[in-house]
Amino acid sequence: MSDEPGAFPGVPVLSDAPPEKDRILNEFSRLIGDRALFGAEVNPEILKKSEGGAKFLLREPPSPSKLLALWGALFGNRISPLRLLELLGPTIHGFEHREPLLLFARDRLIYDTRIAHGGEHIGEMTLAFRTEFERGEGLLGLFRGRTLKIVYIENISLREQSSGYASALFRYYEELFGRLGYHQFRLKASLSVGKYYWAKEGFDCLDGSGVAQMKTRLLALIRSKGLPVREWEIDRLNHTYDVALFRKDLKIPVYRNREGYYALERDAEHPEEFFLPVGKAFLLASDPWDGYKVIYTDTPRRTGFIYSDRYLDHRTRQGHVETPKRLETLMKAVDRDGLRSSLVFLKPYSADPEILAKVHDAAYLESFRRVAASGADFFETRDCSISTESYEVALLAAGGVMAGVDAVMNRRVENVFCAVRPPGHHATRNSAMGFCFINNVAVGAAYARAAYGVERIFILDWDVHHGNGTQDLFEEDPLTYFCSFHEHPTFCFPGTGRRMERGKGAGQGTTLNLPLRPHAGDAELAELFDREVVPEIDRFRPDLILISAGFDGHGDDPIADIELSERSYEHMTHGICEAADRHCGGRVVSVLEGGYHRPAFASSAIAHLRALQGRS
Amino acid sequence: MFVGIRMTKKVITAAPEDTLKRAADLLAENRVHRLPVVRDGKLVGIVSDSDIRNAAVRSSPPGEGAAGAKTVGEIMTREVITVTPWDTVEDALLVLQKKRLGALPVVEGNQVVGIITKADVLAALIETLDIEGIGSRIEVLLPRDAASVRKLIGLIAEKGIEVRSLVLAPHQDRFVAFLRLVTIDAPAVKATLRDAGFTVAELEDFLD
């Protein structure tokens, strides 16, 4: 295991050969002999007040059969007791675990250790492992009906702060317990310093209403301080994680007491003034919360999935191919494929006017809003069939991509698929066409720039139609590379996207069109992708990759004449993820565009999702 | 459509006494291939880049100076084929094609008022066919009568689809209609037309 400063210790691959029952029992006896294994009476109150004092009421270890039963429930046959103790106490940055104990209580196993640095005792840590039957709603409802294996972080106290140890250890544990088949970390963040740290690590309120309460209090704080923060910015926060990183540009005064706790008002107790970013200040000064973090057991890449049933409320006329049934089919396929438990489901929000204005004219948006609300059959052109709620749904589609950008930029997920409709890549600054109204992928790019300062953005559009709207919006922008595969413009809508279109002005050279001749298939596409697209990404060195992912180039799709199979989408996704790993920490935001043969669309999108997760 | 509308009005011209070096520089600077030669505003000849190149090749001894010192007047073509602004683009198209020329000076009386090139005529064609406009192209074969044309347009009108351009051309004993339609769902239009008895060209028909 590495011990360089800042290095992330590797978790060894667990052996495939499961330890035998006799060996486990043997190791139990050795630990009992070494006085490293006890029975324990757990009293949470004792645990919380553990600093320095006795933590547990110790007793004799339970019988071998009880030991074995609990071990089996918690670790199956994946690991033996000695090996677990060894893996739980890695030396990181010179910090090591001393005198570790395993304590068996009726329903849980406890790991308790002292932490030493440079030979000196500087802290302690207590973890508890147990299983629970999940019956929650919301995000936790994903595991409904399953037994969850949970690591409780009961206590961690370190007298040396800011060493980076806790964060390195936590990341190591996340990987370790992922491999051990665990589902969640839980903790009660009561220490003010710990609270901010854990929130940043992606811990969320255990109670779903916790985030809502936090948002209400944050809104009140912002109003009382008269801060220049818009309500939609707060609405956008879905997780304590997002709160922790909220408006880093905006600092407000907070006041600290001698114990290191913060308050928002100065008083006799809290005399010392600090300026902290609003999200951090708010968390440090607010109540403790019970937090959880999902561990992705069998998912090498954490892939987000943005979806809302509201996307079905953009209703096109009878017989129109861009129908809500597309997404219904996709969601059924996601269920059938068992992807629900491995994807991180995230909710979209509505795109706000400030960001939309970077992509579309206000007059155009207003005209769209008015025409949709009037109950008209279509907007601007008959292809663009609408219903009364189409405008609101289109804002939610664009905001879905923004939520996807949030998720990858905040490292909540590595990459994300936005299952949105209506699609967007034909929409220009001031016109709707080809089933598109608001250019979702362009809104995502504009938002990544405005909110996160992302500089270089590469957009790959593999919808079978040329992404003329996206090209129009970015052809003069040297920092946004637009690359599109599509059926040759002579044979297919929209009739643009010829090889000669390579960008304009300062953007000369950052547009690449790769028209495919009719009937082209996987071989032609793979050849072009490997020979032209991948080297172009490597030359451009993007900070974020966006995909306009249409699946209408599939051989079964009647709308065009290209004959791709699922393999093409898989191949391109792997290539994009690898390029993203080389250049931008794996950050990929994929946005649904077309795909009209529903079974082919669903199987292609599933192949894309599995490839985003790093599976084949 | 008249030549006056499509022609390039800013004409780069040479004088007969200009040296070939000067003429070559004018061609290169302005990225054109030929210069009408004008004296007192009157057209007296035309000189092309290949005329100048040929003069350079034929001049002896070879080398700079010799050819460069010759004048435009010595090598220009004096019999210039011209059109007027009120000739039509079709006239220009036919002259350019049949005389195998690259450009025609446009004159009004004695004065040069413009030049119309192959590129100008191609631009007119691109606009007429609306090749760069957003839409889907389909090709339909139909009986060579106005009633069939009316039926074809009627079906498209019924579907509420905007027509960007329509070119109707004779094709053996039938018409072929080249339509550019503002819809992404060309397959749906093709299906409607086929159901009504029209022949819609398949991709295979374009490929070879």
Describe the structure in your own words.
The complex is a heterodimer of chains A (616) and B (208). Chain A has 616 residues and is of the alpha/beta class. Chain A folds into three domains: 21-182, no CATH class; 213-286, no CATH class; 303-612, Arginase, Chain A, CATH 3.40.800.20. Helix content of chain A is 35%, strand content 20%. Chain A is built from 19 helices and 20 strands. Chain A has helices spanning 21-33, 44-48, 64-75, 81-88, 165-179, 192-200, 209-225, 231-235, 240-244, 278-285, 325-336, 353-356, 362-373, 390-409, 440-452, 468-474, 522-540, 566-583, 598-612; strands at residues 37-41, 57-59, 95-104, 109-117, 120-133, 147-158, 184-189, 204-205, 251-256, 262-263, 272-277, 289-294, 303-306, 344-346, 415-418, 457-461, 480-487, 511-516, 544-549, 588-592. In chain A, the strands form three sheets. In chain A, strands 2-1-3-4-5-6-7-12-8 form a nine-stranded mixed sheet. Chain A has an eight-stranded parallel sheet with strand order 14-13-15-20-19-16-17-18, sandwiched between helices. In chain A, β4 (109-117) and β5 form a beta hairpin. In chain A, α11 crosses α19 (598-612), α14 crosses α15 and α18 (566-583) packs parallel to α19 (598-612). Chain A is globular. With 208 residues, chain B is of the alpha+beta class. Chain B folds into two domains: 3-125, CBS-domain (Roll); 130-207, VC0802-like (2-Layer Sandwich). Chain B contains nine helices and eight strands. Chain B has helices at 3-6, 20-30, 49-58, 72-75, 89-98, 118-129, 146-158, 186-195, 203-207; strands at residues 34-39, 42-48, 103-108, 111-117, 136-143, 163-171, 174-181, 199-200. A four-stranded antiparallel sheet of chain B has the order 6-7-5-8, with helices on one face. A two-stranded antiparallel sheet of chain B has the order 1-2. In chain B, β1 and β2 (42-48) form a beta hairpin. The radius of gyration of chain B is 24 Å and the shape is elongated. Chain B starts with a helix and ends with a helix. The model of chain B has no long low-confidence stretch (mean pLDDT 89). Classes of the chains: A alpha/beta (616), B alpha+beta (208). Chain A binds chain B through residues 321, 381-383, 426, 433-435, 465, 468, 490-496, 517-519, 558-559, 561, and chain B through 131-137, 159-162, 180, 182-188, 203, 206-207.
